[in-house]
Design goal:
Mean pLDDT of chain A: 91
Number of strands of chain A: 5
Oligomer: homodimer
Shape of chain A: globular
Chain lengths: 155, 155
DNA sequence: CTAGTTAGTTCTAAAATAGAACCCACTTAT
DNA sequence: ATAAGTGGGTTCTATTTTAGAACTAACTAG
């Protein structure tokens, strides 16, 4: 990240720091849970509302935000009466690594492993997976020691 | 995730879904920005407060939460007068993949690439890195098609 | 023409956040 | 001495966000 003075939440979406920009869209208590539901194939308002226990007001607001950010697409699945559902766009599907990283972290950080009752497994073999980040260009692992953030001036 | 009735934020920390548990710690507007500062080597209260523009009240609260969650360790760096600083624990360092995933997503999702002015580069070569998740056990890429969430009963 | 469905909106009360001032335990400069 | 920092907080009030429950709109089905 780059220091350019204190930030307001309003201009966070245009902050030079990508972490800040990401959080301007998905950085609140409910948004990633809504996205998770979408990855589970849940598309309808009432179903999300009931499963999450989120208030209808906040759910409507988050869905609008996600649609505006291009993460979800709102589309009518019937006419007369017209009813809408929400689906992940490509940009939404690109959040998969964020979700996987959150799952991996939570499963060995909070609470300790024994209580963790949802894990990631291979769809083909059913074996547990052990996600790690590597650089696709070189194949080397990505850690705080191997990478650093760099500011790119101009454009 | 697993459906076990609507959730309250109080028991989110013990939810069977790891996404919910992760968000109970880092799922708000400021927390990952505080963590980001720590990865940048910022350790002191006043410095974080000034760089982020977060209110002192909220910063104190988040630091407490992160300490309670074992993400940060608060330690005195001098006596007379005693002054404290915050450092990432191993559990905190384990959030690195979450941060990297957020950066990667933001850089090609919000806003479009040309304005993105902070990127990840290799510390050794300076070359841009292209982070992807693979399964350390098999070497195969992790995508929504290759993995799925599984509930593990009992314990 | 009554009841049901489903994606929302509109209320009020409670909780979280912003912004600014203050406090405490010192150290350093006058 | 006394005055002026320093730095990690706390304490206020005002504003914003969220919770919770009720209500709409636009229909369809009995």
């Amino acid at each position: 990240m780059v220091y350019g003075g204190p930030m307001k939440w309003n201009d966070l979406g245009t902050d030079p720091c990508p972490v800040a920009r990401a959080l301007s869209v998905i950085g609140d208590r409910w948004t990633m849970l809504v996205v998770r539901e979408c990855f589970f194939g849940i598309r309808r308002f009432d179903q999300m509302q009931e499963r999450l226990g989120i208030t209808r007001h906040v759910l409507a607001d988050r869905l609008r935000t996600l649609e505006d950010a291009g993460v979800l697409r709102r589309e009518a699945y019937q006419e007369r009466p017209v009813r809408y559902e929400y689906r992940l766009t490509e940009r939404g599907k690109a959040l998969h690594p964020v979700l996987v990283s959150l799952i991996t972290w939570a499963n060995d950080a909070v609470p300790p492993p024994e209580q963790s009752s949802v894990t990631l497994v291979s769809r083909s073999t059913g074996a547990p997976v052990n996600p790690v980040l590597i650089d696709a260009n070189t194949g080397t692992p990505i850690t705080p020691h191997t990478v650093t953030a760099q500011r790119n001036e101009g454009a």
